[in-house]
Amino acid sequence: MNIQEELFALQDVSYGDFQAKLVPNIQRELFIGIRVPEARKLAKRIAKEAEVSRFLTDLPHKYYDENILHALLISEIKDYAECIVEVDEFLPYVDNWAVCDILSPKIFKKNKTPLLGKIKEWSASEKAYTCRFGIEMLMSYFLDEDFKPEYLEIPTSVHSEEYYVRMMIAWFFATALSKQWDATIKYIEDHRLDAWIHNKAIQKARESRRVTIKQKEYLKSLKR
């Protein structure tokens, strides 16, 4: 089995054109053009094939779609320790928001105690997409029943000029406002975030159906 050939067999050129517009920092010729549902099916089908282990070590990949598949294959790994090794090997090569955001290992849900330590490590990284991934995992796994107010300090302590890091921090706080209002609103009231992130978090929270009309009006009054 040749994984690159498997990918090209699923090619949709028009979708590649569309995807390239959403990920403008990647050159168009590096998009094969594979729809995400098809990439997910492929990942599940080949996850246990011998070729996969070679594919996961063959970094950097040439094509955007190879990176998408790589992220999906990691997400299928059922052993936590093995998964973390693969994530740490892959993150330095992640160079766009779409690959970063599709990387979502299922095994993380059952290993939240060790995961929190890794989240702190990733979030402190100077590499934009490693940092973004760490904050996204915090948002995904620690804003519900496992939430503690001190977790809000993790993204607050990140100071980056990278657009996709700043957007993730805003997205995190918008989500936190919808799920943990009482703890999170203090960060908005006290201006703990820089003005752009502060306003973007308010904008996103006001677009959320999980935020009440009264809360939205109050947030509007806090814009900077």
Helix tally equals 14
Total DSSP E strands? 0
SSE string: HHHHHHHHHHHHHH
Proportion of residues in helical segments:
55-70%
* Rg from Cα: 19 Å
Keywords for this entry:
14 helices, mainly alpha, 224 residues, single chain
How would you describe the overall organization of this protein?
By secondary structure, the chain is an all-alpha fold. Helix 3 crosses helix 5 and helix 8 runs antiparallel to helix 9. The termini are far apart.
SSE layout and pairing:
Elements (H helix, E strand, L loop, with lengths): L2 H6 L4 H10 L13 H11 L3 H8 L6 H12 L4 H11 L6 H6 L9 H12 L4 H14 L11 H4 L6 H17 L1 H9 L5 H12 L6 H9 L3
Summarize the structure.
This protein has 224 residues and is mostly helical. It is built from 14 helices and no strands. The protein has helices at 3-8, 13-22, 36-46, 50-57, 64-75, 80-90, 97-102, 112-123, 128-141, 153-156, 163-179, 181-189, 195-206, 213-221.
